[in-house]
Design a protein that fits this description.
Elements lengths: L8 E5 L2 E5 L7 E4 L2 H22 L20
Antiparallel strand pairs: 1-2, 2-3
Length: 75
């Protein structure tokens, strides 16, 4: 079995947390806490990859390196 690495993003969303995977179009989940959102998106990634494999489609590989940075701007 191949090990894949993906970047996940977890953001506050009203009263919960939204999680998504930029490299996997449409792969989203949520949770009441950041930890729950993380667990849920990991399950979503597994199902996403499994579905692609079952359909015989190519599994996206996230290129290295990825840069996520917080910047400050004047407003």
């Amino acid at each position: 079995m191949v090990r894949l690495n993906y970047t996940i993003v977890i953001e506050p969303d009203e009263d919960a947390f939204h999680a998504y995977v930029p490299a996997l179009k449409g792969c989203h989940s949520c949770g009441d806490t950041p930890e729950e959102a993380r667990r849920n998106i990991l399950e979503a990634i597994e199902l996403y990859v499994e579905t692609l494999r079952d359909l015989g489609e190519e599994i996206p590989i996230e290129p290295e390196p990825i840069l996520i940075e917080r910047v400050e701007v004047e407003a």
